[in-house]
Amino acid sequence: MSILTMIQQLLEGMVISIQIFFATLLFAIPLGAVICYGRLSKNKFIREITRLYISLMRGTPLVLQLLVVYFGPYYLLGISISLSYKMIAVIIGFSINYAAYFAEIYRGGILSIDEKLYEAAMVFGYSRRHTFFIIILPLLIKRILPAITNEVITLVKDTTLAFVLAVAEVFTIAKQIASSQTTMLPFMIAGVFYFVFNYLVQYIMEYFEKKLSDYE
Hints:
With about 220 residues, the chain is mainly α. It has a single domain (about 5-210), classed as MetI-like (MetI-like fold). It contains eight helices and no strands. It has helices at about 5-40, 45-60, 60-75, 85-110, 115-125, 130-160, 170-180, 185-210. The protein is flat, with a radius of gyration of 21 Å. This is Polar amino acid ABC transporter permease.
């Protein structure tokens, strides 16, 4: 196999990894906000349900969760599983897992906001809704951004776990090529991909951190 062919195959896997990454963020970020809202609810039942959910997602391996999401419909409901469901199961598994982590990050950020900020804003005539979007939200984003950055960087590396459902992301393809061609080169190329991807993510997140650095 030529190096050009090898790179071409790995690029196809890189596209899958990138799709998993962005699809997870697309669903996990808003879902995390919903779970956070439940975690802070005044309703004890809702609080306990969301607390249990977060504990379950954070306390069990992501690999296990992926397997449950994929095989669960068949073993629990008798629904036949198609090959096309693999990618969907990966995105669902990643999304519900990372939503739990994002929810706790959001909750920590919200609890760190002094209630006196609302009171001070109301003195100046701001409604509670305007206070949240104009004052609280930018401050909240600033405080949670470092933790969010860590999770996003972890997500880049966690995309390799899609291999458990035989989704051909870059690491899976690298292993297949390395095994058939008895060479370490595919792993080196995959490593470069993950390094560059993580570097770009870190650069973008640090850019936003700097933009918010003067906000307090």
